[in-house]
Amino acid sequence: MTLAAQEREPARWVRVVAPVAVGVIMFALWVLIVDVLKIAPRALPSPFAVAGELVTHADIILEDMGITATNALIGLAAGAIVAIVAAGLAATFRPIDGMLAPLVAAIAVVPIVAITPILNTMFGASSQFGRVSIAALAAFVPVFINVLRGLRQTRPVHRDLLRASGASGSQTFRFLTLPTALPYLVTGLRVASSLAVIAALVAEYFGGPADGIGTAIAGYAKSGKAALAFAYVVGGVAIGLAFFLVTLLLEWLVTRRRPT
Amino acid sequence: MSTQDQATADLAVRATGVGKVFSTATGDVVALTDVELTVEAGEFVSLIGPSGCGKSTLLRLIADLDDASSGQLSIFGKTARQARIDQDYGIAFQQAGLLPWRTVAGNIELPLELHKVGRDARAARVAELAQLVGLSDFMDRYPDQLSGGMQQRVAIARALAEQPRLLLMDEPFGALDEMTREYLQSELARIAAETGAAVVFVTHSIPEAVFLSDRVVVMSPRPGRITDILDVPFGNERTEALRESPEYFERVTAVREALHGAPTERANER
Question: To the nearest whole angstrom, how far is the Cα of A89 from the nearest Cα of chain B?
Answer without folding.
Answer: 24
